[in-house]
Design a protein that fits this description.
Keywords: Membrane, Transmembrane, Transmembrane helix. The longest helix is centred in the middle third of the chain and has 31 residues. By secondary structure, this protein is α+β, with helices and mostly antiparallel strands. Helices cover 40% and strands 17% of the residues. It contains 20 helices and 23 strands. Helix 7 packs antiparallel against helix 9 and helix 10 packs antiparallel against helix 11. A hairpin with a 1-residue loop joins strand 5 and strand 6. The chain has three domains: 326 residues, no CATH class; 126 residues, LCCL-like domain (Ferric Hydroxamate Uptake Protein, Chain A, domain 1, Beta Complex), CATH 2.170.130; 87 residues, Immunoglobulin-like, CATH 2.60.40.10. The radius of gyration is 30 Å and the shape is globular.
């Protein structure tokens, strides 16, 4: 382990009379306070005028008097006796990191390529992978998502896919699915269902460990019932869809479990050892590296290439890409914020529980904060996600209480004016970002952490917790999502969400019986200026795309067989610049020729 701060600044070897270095540090609180940068407080004059109340008459540096210091420092004293020299401490430190790296690599072997019983390479899937892409992205009649049948492949899913949800409305017949797993059917699943969540629903894999299975494409299938299995309630669809799939087990397929639980125990153990057996704040950097690697490869790894044979190359590439700029940022944070909080702290157990525990709590935010009904901090998501506004109000109230507590602590140290000035600059910057035309402000995980971390630069127990959580949020945000821009265009924020575009106004269709079935002719009012064509979805499959200027199109004719005893769902949307915009809600055509007109509001 690296030498303690006492070793660095006093260059003292352990005494033969049994006196302990750490005990000496604890017995000299005045020397410890003088070691902190308190000289500006002794020599500074109190500001006059309006700022006179922002600095107390006798400012002092906050320190944490350890609870049961003898007990807390017992592991460190034992370590100093077993490794009395700097070289032995350094060797122990290298050995500790080497053991962690070895265990980490051995556990990650489960992500290497494997083959099924037929000798075919198993495909790695992400939690949101599907066979059928959203709405019209499969082309007319689904041509870009073929084959519909006669194909099967072995797949491997990661753990924790059960609670992955769609974040924008997804059409499933007459309804729009949002903020729930996209699983349509039971045993046989609609082609746009999440494959991994469907495999959990079918009992092929487990949510805790992930797993492998065989997927077989099934051609045109009818009637997808809704059932609740293994923690997932599937969505029902009472009509037909051109692509569906089912699962089967392969007894010859040996698929290792997802290693994230074992890796968490390994990483927790070694970071706790590093925290308990070091009194220097420089131990922050190896702890940061271990937690960043854990998020990047195990607890919340970024999405890899679609359907690859191994996710490791992608994860290694993204890890190296993201950790280098992250190191630069945390180095600045260390010398300006973190060092002041951890330096000279003589309470290793409290540091481990409060600061390191908070660090892990924030880094595992995809689990620890998953219960909060806020997926993305955007105006669109806050409007459409149930409970988001109330949750945000509670969070803001909680942050205001924390802010008041931290302001008081800064006031006691006489540093309140400079930090109020710093946050005034932050607020001015946020205001400038808000008024830039054509761009929207997006407060990502790492942005929130960077904004709030300066407010934890003091040695108090609350600051240990807050700083740890914010550092964890920074790590999770960067390792998972990269340094995404704080200013984003409307298209980037929308992703697969609504365009808020104009919708076609349908007229009453002309429906007539004919030999072999029904014929329905649909017409619409004149489109607004700027619209180039119209797209028609039938049962969530694009069946027609016509352009006004080329074809002089003003109607769409649909024919259905007489033996089809299922409803069909129609949605209409304008086409502009080569892409379909928002679709109407679903209108329903029944087997007896009855038509229910859709609402003009968005689907």
């Amino acid at each position: 382990m690296p030498p303690s701060e006492h070793d660095q600044y006093h260059d003292a070897e352990p005494r033969m009379n049994g006196d302990d270095e750490e005990a000496q540090l604890l017995s000299r609180p005045r020397e410890q306070l003088e070691f902190e940068d308190t000289s500006p407080l002794r020599n500074a004059t109190r500001p006059r005028g309006l700022c006179s109340g922002l600095v107390p008459r006798s400012p002092h540096i906050n320190t944490i008097p350890p609870i049961l210091p003898t007990l807390q420092n017992a592991p460190l004293r034992l370590y100093n006796r077993l490794c009395p020299t700097r070289s032995s401490k350094a060797a122990t430190f290298v050995l500790c990191l080497s053991l962690w790296a070895l265990a980490f690599v051995l556990l990650l072997k489960s992500q290497l390529p494997i083959q099924d019983g037929a000798g075919r390479t198993v495909i790695n899937l992400d939690c949101v992978d599907t066979l059928w892409r959203r709405n019209n992205e499969c082309g007319l009649d689904g041509v870009d998502c073929r084959p519909f049948s006669g194909d099967s492949f072995a797949f491997r899913c990661p753990a924790k896919c059960r609670d992955v949800q769609v974040l924008n409305p997804h059409a499933v017949g007459p309804i729009n699915v949002n903020y729930r797993p996209l699983v349509v059917g039971d045993k046989v699943y609609r082609g746009d269902s999440f494959i991994c969540a469907s495999a959990i629903h079918a009992g092929i894999i487990s949510d805790a460990d992930g797993g492998c299975g065989q997927l077989a494409r099934v051609a045109d299938h009818q009637q997808f019932p809704s059932t609740s299995r293994h923690g997932i309630k599937s969505v029902s669809f009472d009509s037909y869809f051109p692509l569906s799939f089912s699962f089967s087990m392969d007894d010859d397929l040996r698929c290792a479990k997802d290693p994230r639980q074992a890796l968490l125990l390994v990483s927790l153990f070694f970071t706790c050892i590093l925290s308990l057996l070091s009194s220097t704040s420089l131990i922050f950097f190896p702890i940061f590296t271990l937690i960043f690697a854990h998020v990047s490869f195990a607890s919340d790894p970024p999405s890899a290439s679609v359907r690859n044979t191994s996710v490791l190359p992608d994860h290694v590439s993204m890890f190296v890409k993201r950790i280098l700029p992250a190191y630069f940022i945390v180095t600045v944070l260390y010398w300006t914020v973190i060092r002041r909080t951890l330096k000279g702290l003589q309470a290793p157990v409290e540091k481990t529980v409060l600061w390191l525990g908070g660090f892990w709590f924030g880094a595992l935010s995809n689990y620890t904060f998953d219960w909060i009904p806020i997926s993305r901090l955007t105006a669109h998501d806050l409007e459409q996600q149930p409970g988001a506004k109330l949750a945000l109000a509670i969070i803001i109230l909680f942050l205001v209480c924390i802010f008041a507590q931290q302001v008081y602590s800064f006031w006691l140290e006489g540093r309140l004016p400079r930090y109020l000035g710093l946050y005034a600059i932050f607020l001015i910057g946020i205001f400038i970002c808000l008024v830039i035309p054509g761009l929207s402000l997006r407060l990502h995980h790492y942005i929130l952490a960077l904004l709030l971390l300066p407010g934890t630069s003091m040695q108090t127990r609350p600051s240990l917790i807050y700083q740890g959580i914010l550092l964890g949020l920074f790590v999770n945000g960067v390792a998972r999502w990269d340094f995404d821009s704080v200013l984003q265009t409307t298209d980037a924020l929308r992703a697969d969400g609504a365009f808020d575009s104009a919708l076609p106004t349908l007229l009453q269709p002309f429906i007539r019986s004919q030999e072999g079935g029904l014929s329905a002719a649909f017409q619409w009012r004149d489109p607004p200026a700027g619209m180039h064509g119209i797209s028609v979805l039938v049962n969530d499959v694009e069946r027609d795309r016509a352009f006004f200027t080329d074809d002089k199109v003003n109607s769409f004719v649909w024919e259905r067989d007489a033996d089809l005893d299922l409803p069909e769902y129609f949605r209409f949307g304008y086409v502009k610049d080569g892409r379909a915009l928002d679709y109407t809600k679903a209108g329903t055509l029944f087997a007896n020729g009855t038509w229910i007109m859709p609402s003009s509001s968005k689907g």
